[in-house]
Design a protein that fits this description.
Elements: E1 2-7, E2 13-17, H1 22-31, E3 38-42, H2 48-60, E4 63-67, E5 70-74, E6 82-83, H3 85-90, H4 98-105, E7 107-111, H5 124-132, E8 136-140, E9 143-147, E10 155-157, H6 163-173, E11 179-183, H7 189-200, E12 204-206, E13 212-216, E14 226-227, H8 232-244, E15 248-252, H9 260-268, E16 272-276, E17 279-283, E18 293-294, H10 306-313, E19 319-323, H11 333-338, E20 343-347, E21 350-354, E22 363-365, H12 369-381, E23 385-389, H13 392-397, H14 401-407, E24 411-416
Parallel strand pairs: 2-15, 3-14, 6-7, 10-11, 18-19, 22-23
Antiparallel strand pairs: 1-23, 1-24, 3-5, 4-5, 7-9, 8-9, 11-13, 12-13, 15-17, 16-17, 19-21, 20-21
Helix pairs in contact: 1-2, 1-7, 4-6, 5-6, 6-7, 8-10, 8-12, 10-12
The protein binds ligand EPZ.
Protein backbone atom coordinates (compact mmCIF):
# COMPACT_ATOMS: atom_id res chain seq x y z
CA UNK A 1 0.00 0.00 0.00
CA UNK A 2 1.33 3.45 -0.83
CA UNK A 3 0.79 6.70 0.99
CA UNK A 4 1.48 10.31 0.07
CA UNK A 5 3.29 12.67 2.44
CA UNK A 6 2.37 16.29 1.68
CA UNK A 7 4.21 19.25 3.20
CA UNK A 8 1.94 22.30 3.39
CA UNK A 9 2.75 25.94 2.70
CA UNK A 10 4.01 25.91 -0.90
CA UNK A 11 2.43 28.16 -3.53
CA UNK A 12 1.85 26.30 -6.83
CA UNK A 13 3.55 27.91 -9.80
CA UNK A 14 4.22 26.75 -13.34
CA UNK A 15 2.61 24.76 -16.15
CA UNK A 16 1.03 21.31 -16.19
CA UNK A 17 -0.34 19.20 -19.07
CA UNK A 18 -3.70 17.63 -18.34
CA UNK A 19 -4.25 13.98 -19.32
CA UNK A 20 -7.07 12.50 -21.37
CA UNK A 21 -10.44 12.07 -19.68
CA UNK A 22 -10.74 8.96 -17.52
CA UNK A 23 -14.52 8.93 -17.94
CA UNK A 24 -14.12 9.57 -21.65
CA UNK A 25 -11.86 6.53 -22.12
CA UNK A 26 -14.08 4.35 -19.94
CA UNK A 27 -16.92 4.97 -22.41
CA UNK A 28 -14.91 4.63 -25.65
CA UNK A 29 -13.25 1.32 -24.76
CA UNK A 30 -16.49 -0.72 -24.35
CA UNK A 31 -17.87 0.88 -27.54
CA UNK A 32 -15.19 -1.10 -29.42
CA UNK A 33 -17.20 -4.24 -28.60
CA UNK A 34 -19.86 -3.08 -31.07
CA UNK A 35 -17.65 -3.51 -34.16
CA UNK A 36 -14.98 -6.25 -34.45
CA UNK A 37 -11.64 -4.78 -35.48
CA UNK A 38 -8.56 -2.82 -34.47
CA UNK A 39 -8.73 0.58 -32.74
CA UNK A 40 -6.11 3.12 -31.67
CA UNK A 41 -7.40 5.36 -28.86
CA UNK A 42 -4.96 8.25 -28.33
CA UNK A 43 -4.65 10.57 -25.29
CA UNK A 44 -5.79 7.68 -23.10
CA UNK A 45 -4.87 8.39 -19.45
CA UNK A 46 -2.47 5.81 -18.00
CA UNK A 47 -4.25 5.16 -14.70
CA UNK A 48 -5.80 2.37 -12.66
CA UNK A 49 -9.40 2.53 -13.96
CA UNK A 50 -8.21 2.27 -17.58
CA UNK A 51 -6.04 -0.71 -16.59
CA UNK A 52 -9.12 -2.32 -15.00
CA UNK A 53 -11.24 -1.68 -18.10
CA UNK A 54 -8.46 -3.15 -20.27
CA UNK A 55 -8.34 -6.20 -17.97
CA UNK A 56 -12.10 -6.59 -18.37
CA UNK A 57 -11.91 -6.35 -22.17
CA UNK A 58 -9.10 -8.92 -22.22
CA UNK A 59 -11.24 -11.23 -20.02
CA UNK A 60 -13.97 -11.02 -22.69
CA UNK A 61 -11.47 -12.16 -25.34
CA UNK A 62 -10.44 -8.78 -26.75
CA UNK A 63 -6.82 -7.63 -26.78
CA UNK A 64 -6.13 -4.34 -25.06
CA UNK A 65 -2.69 -2.81 -24.57
CA UNK A 66 -1.78 0.66 -23.30
CA UNK A 67 1.61 2.13 -24.28
CA UNK A 68 2.03 5.57 -22.75
CA UNK A 69 -1.19 7.30 -23.75
CA UNK A 70 -1.88 5.15 -26.80
CA UNK A 71 -4.35 2.33 -26.35
CA UNK A 72 -4.25 -0.50 -28.91
CA UNK A 73 -7.50 -2.49 -28.95
CA UNK A 74 -8.48 -5.56 -30.98
CA UNK A 75 -12.10 -6.64 -30.49
CA UNK A 76 -12.27 -9.35 -33.19
CA UNK A 77 -11.91 -12.38 -30.88
CA UNK A 78 -14.43 -11.56 -28.14
CA UNK A 79 -15.89 -14.92 -27.07
CA UNK A 80 -16.87 -14.44 -23.44
CA UNK A 81 -19.90 -12.37 -22.46
CA UNK A 82 -19.54 -12.27 -18.67
CA UNK A 83 -18.14 -9.37 -16.61
CA UNK A 84 -17.05 -10.87 -13.26
CA UNK A 85 -17.90 -9.47 -9.83
CA UNK A 86 -14.27 -8.82 -8.87
CA UNK A 87 -13.85 -6.42 -11.79
CA UNK A 88 -17.27 -4.74 -11.66
CA UNK A 89 -16.92 -4.26 -7.88
CA UNK A 90 -13.55 -2.56 -8.47
CA UNK A 91 -14.95 -0.23 -11.06
CA UNK A 92 -18.61 0.55 -11.68
CA UNK A 93 -17.88 1.64 -15.24
CA UNK A 94 -17.42 -2.07 -16.06
CA UNK A 95 -21.20 -2.01 -16.35
CA UNK A 96 -20.75 -0.19 -19.65
CA UNK A 97 -20.05 -3.51 -21.41
CA UNK A 98 -23.64 -4.66 -20.93
CA UNK A 99 -25.24 -2.71 -23.79
CA UNK A 100 -22.52 -3.37 -26.39
CA UNK A 101 -22.31 -7.12 -25.60
CA UNK A 102 -26.08 -7.40 -25.89
CA UNK A 103 -26.19 -5.44 -29.14
CA UNK A 104 -23.42 -7.45 -30.86
CA UNK A 105 -23.85 -10.95 -29.36
CA UNK A 106 -27.47 -10.97 -28.10
CA UNK A 107 -26.34 -11.93 -24.61
CA UNK A 108 -24.49 -10.53 -21.60
CA UNK A 109 -24.00 -11.37 -17.96
CA UNK A 110 -22.65 -8.52 -15.85
CA UNK A 111 -22.27 -8.49 -12.09
CA UNK A 112 -24.32 -5.88 -10.29
CA UNK A 113 -21.87 -3.16 -9.20
CA UNK A 114 -23.16 -2.92 -5.64
CA UNK A 115 -22.53 0.29 -3.72
CA UNK A 116 -19.44 2.45 -3.39
CA UNK A 117 -17.80 4.35 -0.53
CA UNK A 118 -20.55 6.92 -0.42
CA UNK A 119 -23.63 4.82 -0.77
CA UNK A 120 -25.89 2.97 -3.24
CA UNK A 121 -25.24 3.27 -6.94
CA UNK A 122 -28.44 2.00 -8.64
CA UNK A 123 -28.51 0.66 -12.22
CA UNK A 124 -32.28 0.53 -12.67
CA UNK A 125 -32.22 2.98 -15.60
CA UNK A 126 -29.68 0.83 -17.46
CA UNK A 127 -31.93 -2.23 -17.08
CA UNK A 128 -35.22 -0.46 -17.86
CA UNK A 129 -33.67 1.06 -20.98
CA UNK A 130 -32.46 -2.29 -22.29
CA UNK A 131 -35.87 -3.84 -21.59
CA UNK A 132 -37.47 -1.03 -23.62
CA UNK A 133 -35.17 -2.07 -26.47
CA UNK A 134 -36.63 -5.58 -26.23
CA UNK A 135 -34.05 -7.32 -24.03
CA UNK A 136 -35.02 -9.93 -21.45
CA UNK A 137 -33.30 -8.95 -18.21
CA UNK A 138 -33.06 -11.19 -15.14
CA UNK A 139 -31.11 -10.82 -11.90
CA UNK A 140 -29.57 -14.07 -10.70
CA UNK A 141 -26.97 -14.56 -7.94
CA UNK A 142 -25.91 -10.90 -8.13
CA UNK A 143 -25.61 -10.92 -11.90
CA UNK A 144 -27.65 -9.12 -14.54
CA UNK A 145 -28.36 -11.66 -17.28
CA UNK A 146 -29.64 -10.01 -20.44
CA UNK A 147 -30.61 -11.65 -23.74
CA UNK A 148 -32.12 -10.37 -26.98
CA UNK A 149 -32.36 -12.03 -30.38
CA UNK A 150 -32.32 -8.57 -31.96
CA UNK A 151 -32.80 -5.28 -30.12
CA UNK A 152 -35.65 -3.14 -31.39
CA UNK A 153 -35.65 0.67 -31.43
CA UNK A 154 -37.96 2.32 -28.90
CA UNK A 155 -38.63 5.53 -27.01
CA UNK A 156 -37.11 5.79 -23.53
CA UNK A 157 -37.04 8.59 -20.97
CA UNK A 158 -34.34 8.75 -18.29
CA UNK A 159 -36.31 9.69 -15.18
CA UNK A 160 -32.97 10.76 -13.65
CA UNK A 161 -30.19 12.15 -15.83
CA UNK A 162 -27.60 9.36 -15.85
CA UNK A 163 -24.20 9.43 -17.59
CA UNK A 164 -23.69 5.66 -17.47
CA UNK A 165 -27.22 4.68 -18.41
CA UNK A 166 -27.21 7.13 -21.33
CA UNK A 167 -23.94 5.63 -22.55
CA UNK A 168 -25.12 2.06 -22.21
CA UNK A 169 -28.47 2.55 -23.95
CA UNK A 170 -27.00 4.78 -26.65
CA UNK A 171 -24.42 2.12 -27.55
CA UNK A 172 -27.06 -0.62 -27.60
CA UNK A 173 -29.44 1.43 -29.75
CA UNK A 174 -26.88 1.93 -32.55
CA UNK A 175 -27.35 -1.71 -33.65
CA UNK A 176 -31.06 -2.03 -32.82
CA UNK A 177 -33.64 -2.51 -35.58
CA UNK A 178 -35.42 0.79 -36.23
CA UNK A 179 -35.33 4.14 -34.46
CA UNK A 180 -34.71 4.93 -30.79
CA UNK A 181 -35.61 8.24 -29.14
CA UNK A 182 -33.90 8.98 -25.82
CA UNK A 183 -35.16 11.89 -23.73
CA UNK A 184 -33.55 13.49 -20.67
CA UNK A 185 -30.28 11.95 -21.86
CA UNK A 186 -27.05 13.05 -20.15
CA UNK A 187 -25.10 15.76 -22.00
CA UNK A 188 -21.77 15.42 -20.17
CA UNK A 189 -18.83 15.96 -22.59
CA UNK A 190 -17.85 12.30 -22.21
CA UNK A 191 -21.26 11.24 -23.56
CA UNK A 192 -21.09 13.76 -26.42
CA UNK A 193 -17.63 12.41 -27.26
CA UNK A 194 -18.97 8.83 -27.15
CA UNK A 195 -21.80 9.77 -29.54
CA UNK A 196 -19.32 11.38 -31.94
CA UNK A 197 -17.13 8.27 -31.77
CA UNK A 198 -20.14 6.06 -32.57
CA UNK A 199 -21.01 8.27 -35.57
CA UNK A 200 -17.41 7.93 -36.81
CA UNK A 201 -17.99 4.15 -36.52
CA UNK A 202 -21.05 4.52 -38.78
CA UNK A 203 -23.86 5.01 -36.28
CA UNK A 204 -26.72 7.36 -37.13
CA UNK A 205 -27.32 9.73 -34.18
CA UNK A 206 -29.12 13.09 -34.19
CA UNK A 207 -29.25 15.61 -31.31
CA UNK A 208 -25.68 15.02 -30.12
CA UNK A 209 -24.93 17.36 -27.20
CA UNK A 210 -28.59 17.72 -26.29
CA UNK A 211 -30.86 15.85 -23.87
CA UNK A 212 -32.79 14.36 -26.79
CA UNK A 213 -30.95 11.74 -28.86
CA UNK A 214 -32.46 10.07 -31.93
CA UNK A 215 -30.70 6.92 -33.12
CA UNK A 216 -31.47 5.10 -36.36
CA UNK A 217 -30.22 1.54 -35.94
CA UNK A 218 -27.75 0.17 -38.52
CA UNK A 219 -26.74 -3.40 -39.36
CA UNK A 220 -23.08 -2.97 -38.53
CA UNK A 221 -20.43 -0.50 -37.44
CA UNK A 222 -16.73 -0.31 -38.28
CA UNK A 223 -13.63 0.16 -36.11
CA UNK A 224 -12.06 3.65 -36.08
CA UNK A 225 -9.29 5.52 -34.26
CA UNK A 226 -10.04 8.36 -31.81
CA UNK A 227 -8.38 10.96 -29.61
CA UNK A 228 -9.87 11.07 -26.09
CA UNK A 229 -11.06 14.48 -24.88
CA UNK A 230 -9.13 16.15 -22.03
CA UNK A 231 -10.05 15.38 -18.43
CA UNK A 232 -12.15 18.31 -17.17
CA UNK A 233 -12.14 16.96 -13.60
CA UNK A 234 -8.35 16.68 -13.42
CA UNK A 235 -8.19 20.19 -14.90
CA UNK A 236 -10.60 21.53 -12.27
CA UNK A 237 -8.66 19.79 -9.51
CA UNK A 238 -5.41 21.55 -10.48
CA UNK A 239 -7.11 24.94 -10.87
CA UNK A 240 -8.61 24.67 -7.39
CA UNK A 241 -5.25 23.53 -5.97
CA UNK A 242 -3.55 26.60 -7.45
CA UNK A 243 -6.27 28.92 -6.12
CA UNK A 244 -6.03 27.39 -2.61
CA UNK A 245 -2.26 27.97 -2.44
CA UNK A 246 -2.58 31.52 -3.86
CA UNK A 247 -0.47 30.39 -6.76
CA UNK A 248 -0.12 31.05 -10.46
CA UNK A 249 -0.43 28.18 -12.97
CA UNK A 250 -1.23 27.41 -16.57
CA UNK A 251 -2.97 24.13 -17.33
CA UNK A 252 -2.49 22.84 -20.89
CA UNK A 253 -4.29 20.43 -23.23
CA UNK A 254 -7.76 21.22 -21.87
CA UNK A 255 -11.14 22.17 -23.34
CA UNK A 256 -12.09 25.33 -21.39
CA UNK A 257 -15.68 25.09 -22.65
CA UNK A 258 -16.11 21.91 -20.56
CA UNK A 259 -15.25 23.89 -17.41
CA UNK A 260 -17.31 27.07 -17.95
CA UNK A 261 -19.33 26.83 -14.73
CA UNK A 262 -16.22 26.05 -12.67
CA UNK A 263 -14.25 28.97 -14.14
CA UNK A 264 -17.11 31.32 -13.27
CA UNK A 265 -17.11 30.08 -9.67
CA UNK A 266 -13.33 30.42 -9.39
CA UNK A 267 -13.60 34.05 -10.60
CA UNK A 268 -16.34 34.64 -7.99
CA UNK A 269 -13.80 33.65 -5.31
CA UNK A 270 -11.36 36.27 -6.64
CA UNK A 271 -9.19 34.32 -9.08
CA UNK A 272 -7.79 35.98 -12.20
CA UNK A 273 -8.44 33.62 -15.13
CA UNK A 274 -7.37 33.84 -18.78
CA UNK A 275 -8.37 31.32 -21.44
CA UNK A 276 -6.21 30.95 -24.57
CA UNK A 277 -7.06 28.09 -26.90
CA UNK A 278 -6.45 24.82 -25.04
CA UNK A 279 -4.78 26.52 -22.06
CA UNK A 280 -6.20 28.08 -18.91
CA UNK A 281 -4.11 30.53 -16.83
CA UNK A 282 -5.10 31.10 -13.18
CA UNK A 283 -3.58 33.53 -10.68
CA UNK A 284 -4.73 34.06 -7.11
CA UNK A 285 -3.10 36.69 -4.89
CA UNK A 286 -5.54 36.83 -1.98
CA UNK A 287 -7.51 34.75 0.45
CA UNK A 288 -10.58 33.54 -1.51
CA UNK A 289 -14.09 34.84 -0.93
CA UNK A 290 -16.43 32.17 0.44
CA UNK A 291 -18.63 31.02 -2.47
CA UNK A 292 -21.43 28.43 -2.34
CA UNK A 293 -21.31 25.43 -4.72
CA UNK A 294 -24.33 23.40 -5.80
CA UNK A 295 -23.64 20.43 -8.06
CA UNK A 296 -25.84 19.64 -11.04
CA UNK A 297 -25.84 17.81 -14.34
CA UNK A 298 -23.67 19.25 -17.12
CA UNK A 299 -23.12 22.13 -17.83
CA UNK A 300 -23.72 22.75 -14.10
CA UNK A 301 -21.05 22.33 -11.44
CA UNK A 302 -19.75 18.71 -11.51
CA UNK A 303 -20.26 16.49 -8.48
CA UNK A 304 -16.74 15.20 -9.20
CA UNK A 305 -15.36 18.57 -8.06
CA UNK A 306 -17.54 18.90 -4.95
CA UNK A 307 -14.97 17.43 -2.56
CA UNK A 308 -12.21 19.61 -4.00
CA UNK A 309 -14.39 22.71 -3.55
CA UNK A 310 -14.99 21.76 0.10
CA UNK A 311 -11.20 21.71 0.57
CA UNK A 312 -10.88 25.07 -1.21
CA UNK A 313 -13.50 26.76 0.97
CA UNK A 314 -11.54 25.78 4.10
CA UNK A 315 -9.15 28.61 3.12
CA UNK A 316 -11.90 31.15 2.35
CA UNK A 317 -13.05 34.23 4.26
CA UNK A 318 -16.35 33.36 5.95
CA UNK A 319 -19.05 30.75 5.60
CA UNK A 320 -20.00 28.70 2.51
CA UNK A 321 -22.54 25.97 1.74
CA UNK A 322 -21.69 23.12 -0.62
CA UNK A 323 -24.61 20.97 -1.75
CA UNK A 324 -24.43 17.77 -3.78
CA UNK A 325 -27.72 17.22 -5.64
CA UNK A 326 -26.38 14.19 -7.54
CA UNK A 327 -24.99 12.05 -4.70
CA UNK A 328 -26.44 13.10 -1.35
CA UNK A 329 -23.93 11.10 0.70
CA UNK A 330 -20.73 11.99 -1.14
CA UNK A 331 -19.04 13.52 1.92
CA UNK A 332 -16.62 10.85 3.21
CA UNK A 333 -13.87 13.46 2.92
CA UNK A 334 -15.48 15.68 5.60
CA UNK A 335 -14.53 13.72 8.76
CA UNK A 336 -10.97 13.41 7.43
CA UNK A 337 -10.76 17.16 6.78
CA UNK A 338 -12.06 17.77 10.28
CA UNK A 339 -8.96 15.93 11.56
CA UNK A 340 -6.91 18.81 10.12
CA UNK A 341 -8.97 21.29 12.17
CA UNK A 342 -11.56 22.15 9.54
CA UNK A 343 -14.86 23.61 10.76
CA UNK A 344 -17.44 21.76 8.65
CA UNK A 345 -21.00 20.79 9.55
CA UNK A 346 -22.95 18.25 7.50
CA UNK A 347 -26.67 18.93 7.10
CA UNK A 348 -28.40 16.42 4.79
CA UNK A 349 -26.65 16.73 1.40
CA UNK A 350 -24.83 19.96 2.28
CA UNK A 351 -21.54 20.82 3.94
CA UNK A 352 -21.50 24.15 5.81
CA UNK A 353 -17.97 25.46 6.10
CA UNK A 354 -16.54 28.19 8.35
CA UNK A 355 -13.42 29.07 6.38
CA UNK A 356 -10.13 30.53 7.53
CA UNK A 357 -9.50 28.16 10.46
CA UNK A 358 -5.90 27.08 11.01
CA UNK A 359 -5.29 23.65 9.47
CA UNK A 360 -2.53 21.45 10.88
CA UNK A 361 -1.20 18.34 9.16
CA UNK A 362 -2.40 14.88 10.25
CA UNK A 363 -2.73 11.30 8.96
CA UNK A 364 -5.80 10.91 6.75
CA UNK A 365 -7.56 7.94 5.17
CA UNK A 366 -8.78 8.03 1.57
CA UNK A 367 -12.05 6.27 0.85
CA UNK A 368 -12.94 7.32 -2.70
CA UNK A 369 -11.33 8.89 -5.73
CA UNK A 370 -12.36 12.53 -5.57
CA UNK A 371 -12.47 12.60 -1.77
CA UNK A 372 -8.81 11.60 -1.72
CA UNK A 373 -8.00 14.43 -4.15
CA UNK A 374 -9.60 16.81 -1.64
CA UNK A 375 -7.33 15.44 1.10
CA UNK A 376 -4.25 16.13 -1.04
CA UNK A 377 -5.44 19.68 -1.69
CA UNK A 378 -6.04 20.28 2.02
CA UNK A 379 -2.54 18.90 2.75
CA UNK A 380 -1.09 21.55 0.43
CA UNK A 381 -2.33 24.31 2.77
CA UNK A 382 -2.18 22.58 6.19
CA UNK A 383 0.74 23.42 8.45
CA UNK A 384 3.38 20.68 8.53
CA UNK A 385 3.05 17.18 7.14
CA UNK A 386 -0.13 15.38 6.08
CA UNK A 387 0.00 11.63 5.40
CA UNK A 388 -2.69 10.34 3.05
CA UNK A 389 -3.25 6.58 3.20
CA UNK A 390 -4.88 4.15 0.72
CA UNK A 391 -4.01 6.31 -2.27
CA UNK A 392 -4.91 3.52 -4.64
CA UNK A 393 -8.22 5.41 -4.69
CA UNK A 394 -6.39 8.45 -6.07
CA UNK A 395 -4.48 6.37 -8.60
CA UNK A 396 -7.79 5.23 -10.10
CA UNK A 397 -8.44 8.62 -11.62
CA UNK A 398 -5.24 10.69 -11.69
CA UNK A 399 -2.18 9.93 -13.81
CA UNK A 400 1.20 10.62 -12.08
CA UNK A 401 -0.49 13.03 -9.69
CA UNK A 402 2.45 13.61 -7.38
CA UNK A 403 4.85 14.21 -10.30
CA UNK A 404 2.47 16.83 -11.70
CA UNK A 405 2.15 18.57 -8.31
CA UNK A 406 5.93 18.41 -7.71
CA UNK A 407 6.48 20.05 -11.13
CA UNK A 408 4.35 22.93 -9.81
CA UNK A 409 6.47 23.28 -6.67
CA UNK A 410 4.50 21.20 -4.20
CA UNK A 411 6.30 19.05 -1.61
CA UNK A 412 4.73 15.63 -2.09
CA UNK A 413 6.29 12.20 -1.95
CA UNK A 414 4.95 8.68 -2.34
CA UNK A 415 6.18 6.09 0.13
CA UNK A 416 5.43 2.41 0.61
CA UNK A 417 3.71 1.62 3.88
CA UNK A 418 2.80 -1.57 5.70
CA UNK A 419 -0.34 0.15 7.00
CA UNK A 420 -3.40 -1.03 5.16
C1 LIG B 1 -20.53 8.88 -13.94
O1 LIG B 1 -20.95 7.87 -13.04
C2 LIG B 1 -19.06 9.13 -13.62
N1 LIG B 1 -18.30 7.90 -13.82
C3 LIG B 1 -18.92 9.60 -12.17
O2 LIG B 1 -17.56 9.93 -11.96
C4 LIG B 1 -19.76 10.86 -11.97
O3 LIG B 1 -19.70 11.23 -10.61
C5 LIG B 1 -21.21 10.57 -12.38
O4 LIG B 1 -21.27 10.09 -13.73
C6 LIG B 1 -22.08 11.83 -12.29
O5 LIG B 1 -21.58 12.81 -13.15
C7 LIG B 1 -17.97 7.53 -15.07
O6 LIG B 1 -18.28 8.21 -16.03
C8 LIG B 1 -17.19 6.26 -15.19
P1 LIG B 1 -24.84 8.56 -13.10
P2 LIG B 1 -22.39 7.14 -13.25
O7 LIG B 1 -25.48 7.33 -13.63
O8 LIG B 1 -22.65 6.98 -14.70
C9 LIG B 1 -28.64 7.98 -10.37
C10 LIG B 1 -15.46 9.85 -10.93
O9 LIG B 1 -15.10 10.32 -9.84
N2 LIG B 1 -28.88 6.76 -11.14
O10 LIG B 1 -24.77 9.78 -13.97
O11 LIG B 1 -22.39 5.93 -12.40
C11 LIG B 1 -27.42 7.90 -9.46
O12 LIG B 1 -27.76 7.31 -8.23
C12 LIG B 1 -16.78 9.14 -11.02
O13 LIG B 1 -14.81 9.94 -11.99
C13 LIG B 1 -30.06 6.06 -10.95
O14 LIG B 1 -30.90 6.44 -10.14
O15 LIG B 1 -23.37 8.23 -12.63
C14 LIG B 1 -27.03 9.35 -9.30
O16 LIG B 1 -27.81 9.95 -8.30
C15 LIG B 1 -17.45 8.99 -9.68
N3 LIG B 1 -30.29 4.93 -11.68
C16 LIG B 1 -27.40 9.97 -10.65
O17 LIG B 1 -28.29 9.03 -11.28
C17 LIG B 1 -29.38 4.46 -12.60
O18 LIG B 1 -29.66 3.43 -13.27
C18 LIG B 1 -26.22 10.18 -11.57
O19 LIG B 1 -25.54 8.95 -11.71
C19 LIG B 1 -28.19 5.18 -12.78
C20 LIG B 1 -27.96 6.32 -12.05
Amino acid sequence: MDKLIVEGGRRLKGKVKISGAKNGSLALIPAAILAPGIYHLENTPNLRDVWTMSQLMNSLGAFCELNGDSLFLDSREINNFEAPYELVKKMRASFYVLGPLLARFGQASVSLPGGCAWGPRPVDLHLKGLERLGATVEIEHGFVKATAKKLKGARFNFDVSSVGATGNILMAATLAEGNTLLTNAATEPEITALARFLVKMGAKIEGIGTTQLEIEGVDELKPVDEITIPDRIEAGTFLIAAAMTQGEIEIQNVNPYHLSSVLTKLEDTGCEIDVTGENIYLKMDNQPEAVDFITGVYPGLPTDLQAQWVAYMLTAKGSSRITDTIYHDRFKHVPELQRLGADIQLIENSAIIEGGKKLSGASLMSSDLRGSAALVLAGLVAEGKTDILRIYHLDRGYERIEQKFISLGASIKRVKTELI
